[in-house]
């Protein structure tokens, strides 16, 4: 563009130097000026067109990204709500007849669930998150009521024993599966989470492991009958570990949770906060972690089972990670990981 303006000026200069008449010079100058004007107009039009196209392209790009982000947020929030509702529904069923005379917490949870289920499919992300928190809160109240009732029954039994003048039974740990006394109840009081089945169409990423990557352990399943899946090499190593554990302790290793899919991890994080791993980072999502039951007498810090697992687990590739140790950053006596 700049070049044509220069040519026009040179043309005008030549016309001057050539001694042409004033009329001819004027015509040439006008033609040159007209040319410059037309070129300038064309440049402005082109620039305007480019700016408009650019603006439209940017606007379209931003709008597409916004929609994708909003859709992701909505899916995450509704997914967490669905998981919280399913889990609270289970707690409601399980707690029937377990809360003593005061059934109000269960009534409140039932009402909360009904409200959540009515709007679950149409809730905005913020509303879905608020409902998730409400459901989790109501569920926790039911769990607290169940725990209070259990404590009341245990105290009443102890009082009855004392009244009969008999010594209370020994609190010696009984490592048998499912054998728990009132003094050896679970240390977990949060909402229930269950082990996961392989993820259909899973891409192999954390929490999305397909059936082809996983193997169920042979000797046990969870309370709902779901097999305990682990990455196949970790499962094979745990089979060998369990054979040695059983030989040493007289019973199989009990499991509470192994593979956990991403949806469950999202729901756990929503319900438990920072004690649950950030979704997509849990070793349960890679099928390389087990949780044994949170029963302190059976598997707690000072239990024979833990002593055996810490001493002999590494020979089978299974370890108690440093962060989960008693002096670690997030003590979890029930959590072990496969390191191969
Ligand atoms: Zn764990």
From TrEMBL:
Span list, region Disordered: 165-185
Domain of life: Bacteria
Comp. bias intervals (Low complexity): 165-179
Listed transmembrane segments: none
Keywords: Signal
Residue span, D-alanyl-D-alanine carboxypeptidase-like core domain: 229-340
Pfam families per UniProt: VanY
InterPro entries: VanY-like_core_dom, Zn_M74/Hedgehog-like
Signal peptide: 1-22
The protein's name: D-alanyl-D-alanine carboxypeptidase-like core domain-containing protein
